[in-house]
Design goal:
With about 80 residues, the protein is mainly alpha-helical. Helices cover about 95% and strands about 0% of the residues. The protein is elongated, with a radius of gyration of 34 Å.
């Protein structure tokens, strides 16, 4: 009885081990077949990040300082009082 239990345990564990090894092989195959796609995606992502950074830098350089807004508001309010 004990011997049959050990035999069943060994067969079950071997089945699980073979299944896991098969999964690892399949994952490696997918990684191998999609390597070019992955490299292209990484390059596109890198280029888009560069473009976003350059766009942010130009947006920051064209912003009007807060002092100009404060002066415009003060001028509008003083002109509104005189009319």
């Amino acid at each position: 009885m004990l011997l049959e239990g050990l035999k069943l345990m060994i067969v079950g564990m071997a089945t699980v081990m073979l299944f896991l090894l098969l999964m690892i092989v399949c994952i490696e195959w997918v990684k191998y077949f999609t390597r070019n796609f992955t490299l292209n995606q990484q390059q596109r992502l890198h280029e888009s990040r560069k473009l976003e950074l350059s766009a942010q830098e130009t947006a920051l350089s064209t912003d009007v300082p807060i002092e100009v807004f404060a002066a415009a508001i003060a001028s509008y309010e003083s002109a509104d009082d005189t009319s």
